[in-house]
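Hi R.,

Here are the chain sequences for the assembly we discussed:
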Amino acid sequence: MSKRHLLALFNDFDEAVAAISELRAANIKGFNMDDLILKSPIEHPEVEKVLGDKPVHVQWFTLIGACTGALLAFFLVSGAQANFFSQIKGGKPIVPLPPDFVLTYEMFILGGVFITILGFLICAGLPAKRSSLYSAKVSEDQIGILVKGDESAVAIFKTIFTKHKALEIQEEAGK
Amino acid sequence: MGKDIREDIAWAQINKDVLKSIESPKRMYWVILLIALAMIGVAVGCEIYQYTTGMGVSNKNNSHVWSLYIATFIFWIGMSHSGTLLSAILHLMHADWRKPIYRFAEAMTTFSLMTAGLFVMVHLGRLWQVYYVMPYPNERWVWPNFQSPLVWDMFAIATYLSSSVLFLYVGMIPDLAICRDNIHAGWRKKLYTVMSLGWEGTDRQWRNFRITYLTIACFLIPLAVSVHSIVASDFAMSNMPGWHVTSFPPYFVAGALYSGCAAIITLFIILRYVFRFEEYMTLPIMKKLVRLTFAIAMVWTYLNLIEFASVWYGHDQTAKDQLIFKATGPYAPFFWAMIFFGSILPLMLAFKRFQTHLPILFVVSILLNVGMWLERWMIISPSFAHGHYPWTWDHDQWPSLVQWGIVFGSFGWFTLLFMVFCKVFPSVSMYEVKEMVYHRSLALKHKPAVKGEY
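And here is the predicted structure of the full complex:
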């Protein structure tokens, strides 16, 4: 069955949350809560209550990036120093650990930051082409709820959105 | 104290006000830009003359090998600290008054670092060999010394610059999407479309954005501290009298924060006027900023005294002589000017009547930075003038006009970059101001606190 996309715009965040709660409670055939996307001009962490906790994996990228950066720095520096073995060191170690810690630390941070950004792009699905159901009002002051469901669910979506004072409902045939 | 921001500002109005700033600033904007260009012209002329004639025209010599170039390099590195560091610290502390002012402060960081980087090249003289600064191992048989703080400097500054740029950019993505949605044609539209990466403000994007921004903020705090500690190590790890002081790293970090805060005050006043940001860069926010600057000024004063006391009560007679030379010799006027501008003048900031008096604050903030620039000069030149060996003493060296011209022009370069940034990108974070307004209006309505507010 072909899927349809609907974007409803709300002025009031509480109404949008109430609409999401009702969509969840209505147990609509041909609609899954994972197919609901909330679009907002600011972050609303409290929406997780109704959308359900969704894991964020950016921290894993951070961990990998920071560790890789630190290891890379240490091996780069100590490898270069190990090549100096023929130079006279006056009894000092060929690979001195305390000063090498400084560069290891800097690259730990650099790796952490770079790979965190990479992780963010991957996890947030960016860069992306904007969906055709997008309203510039969402970046201004309105809340958008984008849903995807079967043809049969469209009427119920509209009823719920209208009940919760949606300002506008846009519709598009799904892919 | 009044409100940091009005809770009843319409969100659409916030967009409109900030977008107006990038389209039609006051005429003063163009005047500032022209002055900046003229200043750059002076510096470029001096640099061309120095490049074609040789480093001798800078009047540096065997004793005074660093002089104004490295002093100003450290000044700009220091200036870069407050933007990103304060933004990150205040973000972690949930101090939401940072929201209208952090964007330009972060931009200040980026452009200060870029300006500082220029001085490395100017100081080198042989511009065509600038890539030798990059310590990639052994291939050129240069044998980079990875134990040297100068090599650490390069790594630290490159890390700080790239991380600060990313921090600035990531924090700007939702605002770039607003620009994309509201500007209808031309190169700006294309720029914002590409840079906003297709941001739509979905719950998935915000969730990942929050964690990413928080994580980078956590990284940037120790990074910023490490960068200026490492710059301090350039001095503290050497054996020059006046430099070999244990308290140098915290002293440098405090000095950096101090000059950065003073610069934020100056730029706050300029942007508030030029871009008509009276609704966002409010006097209560200025008051908080001024109090913070005052507190940091007192920390810097304390660390200054600690430094002098360490030398005075220490056993290094040369360092003691050097301190006396600084206070009584040919550098005495500049030394005492540094003490006046750095420690005495900020006492004004403790008085309520001055904390929101913008014309006075504008002048005072500039003078504080004059003091902080003098501090860097007073660290470098007197030590070179009066070192360990009497046959290297050179008390009469005075930087040439070429040096002064390049230093003068660097302020124009910074101003140009900064003002162009503010014209192309939103210098007030629209989405964060909306968050601030939203949370404050919720608090007013006695609604329960928002879970997970970061």
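Chain B touches chain A through 61 residues (CB under 8 Å). Residues 149-182 of chain B form the longest helix (34 residues).

Let me know if anything looks off.

Best,
T.
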